[in-house]
Amino acid sequence: MASKTSLRRTLRAYQIYGANTNVGKTIMSTIICKAFKRQFPSQNVWYLKPISTGPLDEADYRHIARFSPETKTKCLFQFDEAVSPHIAARSSKYLSDSEVRDEVLAHLMACSEAGEGTLLLETAGGVHSPTPSGSSQADLYRPLRLPICLVADHHLGGISASISAFESLHIRGYDLDTVLQFEDGKYQNHTYLQEYFEQKGISSLSLPPPPPRGPTEEEDQEIMSDYYEKMSKLDKVEEAIFSLSEKHTKRLENLESMSTRANDTIWYPFTQHRDISPQSIVTIDSASGDFFQTYTPTSKAGTLIPTFDGSASWWTQGLGHGNPELSLAAAYAAGRYGHVMFAGAIHEPALQLAESLLHYLNNPRLQKVFYSDNGSTGMEVAVKMALTASFERYKWDVPKEEVGVIGLKGSYHGDTIGAMDASEPSTFNERVHWYKGRGYWFDFPQVKMVRGKWIVEPPEGMKAEFGEVTEFASLAEIFDIQARLGSSAGRKYSKHIEETLNGLINKEGKTFGALVMEPVILGAGGMLFADPLFQHLLASTIRTSPLFPSPPHASPETWTGLPVIHDEVFTGLYRLGTFTPSTLLQSHPDISVHAKLLTGGLVPLCCTAASQSIFDAFLGNEKRDALLHGHSYTAHPVGCQVAVKSIAKMVGMENEGAWDHAKEDWKSGSRLASVSDQAVQAWSVWSKGFVGKVSFSREVESVIALGSVLAIKLQDENSGYSSTAATGLQKKLLEGSDGFKIHVRVLGHVLYVMASQTSRTEALRSIEKTLLDALY
Amino acid sequence: MASKTSLRRTLRAYQIYGANTNVGKTIMSTIICKAFKRQFPSQNVWYLKPISTGPLDEADYRHIARFSPETKTKCLFQFDEAVSPHIAARSSKYLSDSEVRDEVLAHLMACSEAGEGTLLLETAGGVHSPTPSGSSQADLYRPLRLPICLVADHHLGGISASISAFESLHIRGYDLDTVLQFEDGKYQNHTYLQEYFEQKGISSLSLPPPPPRGPTEEEDQEIMSDYYEKMSKLDKVEEAIFSLSEKHTKRLENLESMSTRANDTIWYPFTQHRDISPQSIVTIDSASGDFFQTYTPTSKAGTLIPTFDGSASWWTQGLGHGNPELSLAAAYAAGRYGHVMFAGAIHEPALQLAESLLHYLNNPRLQKVFYSDNGSTGMEVAVKMALTASFERYKWDVPKEEVGVIGLKGSYHGDTIGAMDASEPSTFNERVHWYKGRGYWFDFPQVKMVRGKWIVEPPEGMKAEFGEVTEFASLAEIFDIQARLGSSAGRKYSKHIEETLNGLINKEGKTFGALVMEPVILGAGGMLFADPLFQHLLASTIRTSPLFPSPPHASPETWTGLPVIHDEVFTGLYRLGTFTPSTLLQSHPDISVHAKLLTGGLVPLCCTAASQSIFDAFLGNEKRDALLHGHSYTAHPVGCQVAVKSIAKMVGMENEGAWDHAKEDWKSGSRLASVSDQAVQAWSVWSKGFVGKVSFSREVESVIALGSVLAIKLQDENSGYSSTAATGLQKKLLEGSDGFKIHVRVLGHVLYVMASQTSRTEALRSIEKTLLDALY
């Protein structure tokens, strides 16, 4: 694999940004090029101007060639007009950001093959000057994340321009190696800025400005030659070169040491530390879009390798790593509020998020939003809400500890004790002190594709009751719940649910206070795709069961039977293709829990939404009747603001048809005229043809795909969490192809790949190809 | 109280920032002033140039006066030299940012008293141009948070300058009302920027630039007069004025509606909703430093009132709301990574934070850091760690559920079920389903000041055993643990602890797996100040008790007895004046938990630090032997980066002597020569004299002060959480004085005020005065 890496031991590469246009980037570049050559006479010095417009800019690399003749100069894209590249590009062919990046990377690779050396990449204009595609330079070059030399603005007003330019780079995750300045006696920007950047630990180099132009071209050249000679020999320039060079070395040393230091210091989540070593720890330098930049010490090809984040960073990632809009949203809220105490107070981001979430959930039952910090705490809140509401209504004469929940086998709701207690005993929790599974968990029929067919398969022990496998012509038909309600399967499900509950409650004397389930796909349990009809009927059967007397004169939004909790932490917010998976189930929960994608993949935050009738159960004359739960950072403005932005972005993408091509793909070839509109919402970013092919592999037992989730269950005798069947495939993906590695996580013998909501089609198709190559 | 408000119904105030120097701020201001006058002929239009330097800038308000003669112009501070204000100020008297803000606020107040009108505040230079004090304008004016009209840069390079200027304002929490632009045919910045800002929902107004200067001064004036007349009558200018005016109204309407909408939508933590109404909900527009800007609908004096955040936003706040350094740190990590999956991976902020925390904790036992999302989850992790380690060593033959913790009465460790289970039954948890207090909680002697004397008072039931109250000459003496170890109190404490444990374990047959305590002050339990000697002896007695056989050949860092957990979530990271309260106790925990101040008051994050011998208990051949706990956003880079910055800032403040004046205050008048160095670390930002005075009030039972915490226990018969004794005092503080309100929270009959680590002395003295006025 030829990896596109922006960091190699043999190549010191720096990016020259200007705090403004006409601040002397090229003059500084000339000095730096000459000085590097002086410092390392046997090494190459390259100067790269990726995009140049008009004779003025063209002069940049000619200027370098003239005054630092030993520097190897190159321009990748030349536009004729001397205007902003985005205007120049209009009259030329369209040039995309990724084309520019690919060419730059190819050049960096070529330079780094030629032995040790230094490369300066000079940008055009200021940090946010438009690129040919109309984006900003700071965004265009961000995936490379080269260390920056910022040429400050020495003119009047230049202090402000220089600091703002720094901030624009900083909030995009760039590191500034040094600030280059021309001294100006009148404005003294350099003295102010030197102190300013020193406080931030950033060095600066101040040099006298070039002398006035000579009377003739020839004399001018001589004057400039002298100037460059003098400058490049200055002690402080030499020191600056040494420091730049040292930073390159230190960056590599730091990357090299990180996994060892992490192994010494970090106690990892869900990790048997006996199984890990510095060699197995992935060092992530940075990330952008769907890709980590991971350090690979042994690779000759490069030291930073782009690696597809195939677990969507533990299922959180939605809008791309290093998304500048989310950074700005976070920083805006941090700047406007920091955190502000939320008990009895309101701030705009918390209010906007609650209103927006309730609006798009579009569930008439849900009226109130309770904030907490993550899915696990949000589920504890949900359980506290439901149990209190049940007790309040039914006034059971049993100890409060002994009431349980109804759930599904293989469910998982988080790692705090209360959330664990709502899950069936399993490897995750059986060794945990204080854990006690409280409830009953139904086994359930599963949806999967096997050898090209979508099927619903009852669990082994229930095939006598439910029958064998049922085949469907399309995934959509499985979601056509209204059509399936009257089917024989529907009747069997209802009967089974009723009889089981009756046995548990009336024969075994158990008490239950809530129905808790992850709608459609049970994630951590192994990407178990539940038959939506079964989940639909579980809720409706409990809600109408004579086991639970309904309150008289209740509004249609009042909960009946037991409060229904949807744990949408993993499955919500477009992870499965719809804003809420409750739409796919055609079932309105009384309580729903939202986290992970809520902040687009940036910071922890959770919303537990609840109905008025749940809320009312906590009204009382005493404070202790209230829901006495709260975290210090409840509804922290940073998280809320980022969530407001994330929801708006994702809803906007849906409205703009961002996923229409995938929806079309999944509609094609189905007998869909007969299914309802809501059923057609079952689609995936993973292509239908690819999923079909995977299902025919001899190594594959079954496959599922929905929304951005793809899960491949491999043939393996030793099923369950301790299985290692998928690790072979996982290793093959990590070898990568098409210039990037693919980092995925496995759950027993299930290997899953999770895209973000903004994954590019090319990357997805490339991963599909790699997967098929590995499977066949 | 004369509140300093920046928002009043009667005054539309806008701040004009320039994307650079010389972009035409004054020309735009003139047009806007004239157009406002045209739109609202009967109303006032003010123009304020707070700081003006030299004849060039001086011209600004003269220019307005000349071409918009009906505008009332004012300059507050005039410097003679035509250079940057910070240079000008060097040759003049020093001018602080707060002086400037106070004068601006006074002027805003005066204008708003004169009936309806509009005010434009024009800044000098660009957004980050230095102020006379050397800070940046964007920071200087931030506490006012006036809506912004940004004058874009229409020159070559101006796109970049304009976007960067916007970003610098945005990350400080400013709202942009509009972008004002001069059209330039060549560079077409305005077309690009109009689209750019439109996508962000920000309107813009593009106008033709002023004509070239006339040949004579007189002709030039005429040309400009014509230009202004024409411009101020343009339809699009009229629309822009209408839109600006409407935004002012909408901002007020929004603030007015927020508490009602919150009451409809939000389910508040720890809140009996029957007790709240829209009227009781505090609407927080924004915050800076220690102050919220709260909306007060009924106040004639102003609609936004500065309100001291006296609960330090639920004990989280350390470095000031809207701290730009923390915003930048958050945005940097968001830009560099977003969130990246942490299982088996490492990124720089997580590694730096773990290393930095372990370094400054300076506890040879602590070697590993486990990340989670808040204090409650971090405590669950700590308990899981300790119980597994105990079981692993002692191999008790009891059900895993039945092992308990040793703790202190009144303790609180968070609201998830596992954290609750570690606390004694109380009002907080007794109604919670699934809660079960698992352990034994010691009552303990408390430290307090009563009528001018620092005392240690045993609990009522233990006075027979421990004796009556002991008086100390100073708070420091109470912390002189080495000196007190051999005292009669020390011997009695040890004996009591040993006998109690023996009874619980050998007679009652109980099993305990950990000692869990909040060092020094038990916060949520009512700011209970435990005798540090008792806490010290509790740990050392358990560690050396023959009840727990020690492992052979253990290193000094190996835990003995039971693992000792310090819940430092509230008391750590300088809240009590030292980096860790363990220093005050002279006791090294085996596990310690850190949150709240960890991120300086910005986002949730928690670190659970543990010793190698605790960590080793989870090493095994199977994955399920590991600590199977983890949250999706484990070690999220935004939180880690902000925490790295916060710790560096706070340690830096200590090293620079930021709190030396307070330390001196608490040293004075004590017989401190005789106490150890560590005991002298007992000091408070609340002045010693003030604390003494409070203790003499007839309304006060006792008072404590340590670090940034002040807690006043009021005389009240009905003690406990349901008491309402302190609400009277709370209400008086909310009326405020000295131009600001004071928002505090109460715990039963304890009223506490918590400063941040950066609270200004003047504010603290002012609050002390208000408190004394209310108490006497």
Automatic annotation (TrEMBL), chains A, B:
Question: What CDD domains does the annotation carry?
Answer: DTBS (cd03109)
Q: Which GO terms describe its molecular function?
A: adenosylmethionine-8-amino-7-oxononanoate transaminase activity; dethiobiotin synthase activity; pyridoxal phosphate binding
Looking up InterPro entries in the UniProt record yields: Aminotrans_3, Aminotrans_3_PPA_site, P-loop_NTPase, PyrdxlP-dep_Trfase, PyrdxlP-dep_Trfase_major
GO cellular component terms attached to this protein's record: mitochondrion
Among the record's GO biological process terms, what is one? biotin biosynthetic process
- Write out the coiled-coil annotation as residue ranges: none
Q: Where in the cell is it found?
A: Mitochondrion
What is the official name of this protein in its record?
Answer: Adenosylmethionine-8-amino-7-oxononanoate transaminase
- Name the source organism: Hyaloscypha bicolor E
Q: What is the lineage of its organism?
A: Eukaryota, Fungi, Dikarya, Ascomycota, Pezizomycotina
